[in-house]
Amino acid sequence: MGVIDDLYRRALLAVADAGPVTGFVKQQGRHLGVSRFVAGERLPEVLEAARTLRGEGLESIFDLLGEFVDTEADAAAMTGEILTTLEALRSEPGERYMSVKPTQLGLGVNFDLGLRNARRVAEKAREVDARLCLDMENAPYVDGTLRLFRTLQDEGFRHVSTVLQSYLYRTKDDLNTLLEISPKPTLRLVKGAYRESEAVAFGDKAKVDQNYRDLLYRGLEGGATLGIATHDESIIRETEAFVRGAGLDADRYEFQFLYGVKPALQKRLVGRGHKVRIYIPYGSDWYGYFSRRLAERPANLMFVVRGLFG
Amino acid sequence: MGVIDDLYRRALLAVADAGPVTGFVKQQGRHLGVSRFVAGERLPEVLEAARTLRGEGLESIFDLLGEFVDTEADAAAMTGEILTTLEALRSEPGERYMSVKPTQLGLGVNFDLGLRNARRVAEKAREVDARLCLDMENAPYVDGTLRLFRTLQDEGFRHVSTVLQSYLYRTKDDLNTLLEISPKPTLRLVKGAYRESEAVAFGDKAKVDQNYRDLLYRGLEGGATLGIATHDESIIRETEAFVRGAGLDADRYEFQFLYGVKPALQKRLVGRGHKVRIYIPYGSDWYGYFSRRLAERPANLMFVVRGLFG
Asked: Looking at the 3D structure of chain B, how many domains does it have?
């Protein structure tokens, strides 16, 4: 299965990059079931989606779609939208949490621009009592993102977290470095969904999964607070076993799901006393995110195909 | 899958009980791949099998096949064979462990006969520095077996363990009662492989599995030493996660496999630092044991079918 899964993922991401496909899907999005995975294009819709989730015992984290920003002006515009979202969160009940991609802040233009905008966003988050997660993008941005994170930690922005990807060879070392921070950091752990070369990432699904487990146990043992952001039910079960064995406090970990994925499992985990947070993507720039969801598993593509022909 | 698995198991056990099938299989056993699951009919062969396993880092537990003994004379003969096996173990290196079925000792004739023979066997085990497990058979014998076990514990036979089956409704209460024993008992935890009615046992595989997990965690948290005797790879992974989380000493649990089942996994677990014990059935009365292995999963039946035609 590992090999087939990997081939499927690579094929789908390659097709999604082709111009005609991109155009068709962007045009037909509404008919393709994008709303299954994207809570909305506009802020009021997604605030409403989060309230509905909260009614079911689920926490949320907002993610403004949009990536690979490459000019200072675009970064300023995107940063402005993020600040607007944070301001809108101020009056929302429950835990406020926002995820941002460092390239949205201008990391791809240069580090200093990314840092300046990251500080503005982190300050705003503090002002509205929200937490902020610096998301992780593809391999070229890992160093910069970790440096951003470390800088913000050193400047006292303790409400900022970041993400590690188990498909990268380097992540084990990155985790060990992050565990030296005191107080211990908050990290989201994902497998990784970008197309990466074998020079930097495991090609074999079994190795990605095993690395995920190793990072998970090492992170919790090392004192980090972890967001277990995977839909892998085996790993979720094992996490439950580990935290029960370790007698971990419920605030030391949480399960994180993408909006629309395995809603029944989300609720079962809440029922078993775990904190569950839903990653809510929103905005008009949903294409890259949507392709990665389809690449993740054939069942998601079938959902789209059924929508087209059904 | 749960429903299909259960239907398969029930159908196979029903067919295995039919006279003509029994006759054919008993006659053709050697051609049907019985030796995949039964280490041998005679003691020297199985001692040799255990030595081979020990060379691979695997411990063993001997199990003399034969069940549903219903006369005092047969119980005496079977007890004699068990004593002979224990005597033969005296000069074997490594951990010595023998499993016996209480009906082999005469529990099905009457409790006192079973207890007298169990004492003789337990004394012999102590003499040769072996441990002894009172195996668990079908539902009518559970009360008697637990009473035997409790009596032997009270008489100071601390090297005696017993078995709990997660498919029985009663097992949760039985575990709680056993956890009151001090020092805490050693227990093997299995799902259960006999054909039982829904009056006493879960019919739904998912419930049997969930109960297994509950019993496993409760048992380890309650201080028992557990033999995790299942081939369910999810549960094995979760056990690994639990014991890592809990930081349990390696002598508080072990994984147990039946001879011939998932040998690659057995070795991987040894490689990851766990103790693994192989249940080695031997003797001429292998029919009931063999049918239960085939009933366990279609892959085992396919192994036999390939042997017949291949």
From this structure: 1
Count residue pairs from A and B with Cβ separation < 8 A: 47
Question: In whole angstroms, what is the distance from residue B147 CA to residue B3 CA?
Answer: 34
Looking at this predicted complex, what is its ipTM?
A: 0.76
Tell whether the torsion through CA atoms of B99, B105, B108 and B114 is positive or negative.
negative
Say if CB A192 and CB A142 are below 8 A apart.
no
Domain of residue B264, residue span: 39-285
Task: Quote the radius of gyration of chain B (alpha carbons, Å).
Answer: 18
The pTM score is 0.81
Tens digits of residue pLDDT in B233-285 = 999 999 999 999 999 999 999 999 999 889 999 999 999 999 999 999 888 77
| Residues of chain A numbered 249-278 and touching chain B (CB < 8 Å) | none
- Note whether residue B143 is domain-resident: yes
Q: Give yes or no for A3 touching B (CB within 8 A).
A: no
Residue B248 touches chain A, beta carbons under 8 Å = yes
Q: Tell me, what's the pLDDT at A310? A: 47
B103: left (phi over 0), alpha (psi -120 to 50) or beta: alpha
Q: Which of B217, B230, B238 is most worth mutating to test chain A (most A CB atoms within 10 A of its CB)?
A: B238
Q: Among the listed ranges A34-38, A194-198, A277-281, which one has the minimum average pLDDT value?
A: A34-38
Interface of B with A in 204-233 (CB under 8 A): 213, 217, 220
Is the bond into A93 cis (omega within 30 degrees of 0)? no
**A231 within a domain of the structure (yes/no):** yes
Structure tokens at B243: 């014991």
Residue B117 domain flag: yes
Nearest chain B CA: its distance from A168 CA (Å): 22
DSSP-assigned beta bridge partners for residue A40: A282
Find the CATH number of the domain harbouring A59.
Answer: 3.20.20.220
Q: Provide the 8-state DSSP code for B184.
A: P
- Within a domain: residue A89? yes
Q: Which residues of B are catalytic?
A: 135, 188
Which chain A residue shows the shortest CA-CA distance from B244?
Answer: A242
Q: Is there a contact between A238 and B243 if contact means CB atoms under 8 Å apart? A: no
Tell me if B238 and A243 make a contact (CB, 8 A cut-off): no
Which residue type does B75 have? A
* Distance between CA atoms of residues B220 and A70, nearest Å: 55
Interface of B with A in 10-49 (CB under 8 A): none
